[in-house]
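Exercise 7. Given the components listed, write out the predicted structure of the assembled complex. Treat all entries as one system.
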Amino acid sequence: MASNMETGATADEQLDHVDKPEGPVTAAILASGVGALSLGILTTLAEASTSIKDFLTLYDPVGALSGKTIGAVLVWIVAWAVLHMMYRDKPMESRKALTAALVLIGLGVLGTFPIFFQAFAPAE
Amino acid sequence: MAPVELTDRELWTLIHGMVFGAVFLLGFAGGLEGLYSLRPRLLSAEGVRDRVRRLKVGVVAMAVAAWGTVLTGTWIVYPWYREDIPESPRSLLLANPDLEEWHHFGMEWKEHVAWLSPILATVVAFIVIYYGTSLIRHDRVRKTTMLLFVLAFLFAAVAGLFGALITKAAPLV
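Answer.
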């Protein structure tokens, strides 16, 4: 088999590319940020409010973590589906989506960071 | 030599940490190298096809492993950890002022932040499958994928590290 060195063609030129829009990638990246943020928000809300913590306790042995994680995953999936429908045929670059997602992920991590969310716990 | 005997709890802890968790963490280096080297100057066309084929299998396997880790961790192992009995790891940690931060900080962070890893690993798998060999033409997206992959690894590593240390401080038996 001829290599790209022998033919003078680059690997890129030898491959059969299907030109796909970047919109679906943008949607997936943005949705991951939305999912991360929702986990951070649910974690902090559960700490701040006993009634929210009880509401999120979908399965007693797991406690509120059951509702936080199911909730965050549902928000992530729904956000991904909606964004995918919006962007699926669009050639939009994912550069800005990445920046937005990194900010959202950062906020999500902050919301799951114990020193942060425990500061919202009601005084005993 | 006596045979190794594991309780159900030890077995599931093993599956959670040493099967799913270890597959994800150990697979990371290979996946990252695959993404890093997916550049036209470094590979022939056949090399790209072969690399992408393996990359697809690798990133999907890692996403599955990441989901397996958090699902077994949260729904099988965690209830045993937090059981309201004096012998549970949570009770043991909270009963000892020298160890209670392993719960208040370590476990509290681990149980939440770990869930970011499968979400990001799934996005990485989606991008690799969506573009396939065409990823070689999208250098910016390839670099973005690498960044998301590294983040997925870091969150899993934080969770894995705390998991190992907490198990050391208060084993689940």
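Discussion: The first helix of chain B runs from residue 8 to 36. Chain B has one domain: 8-169.
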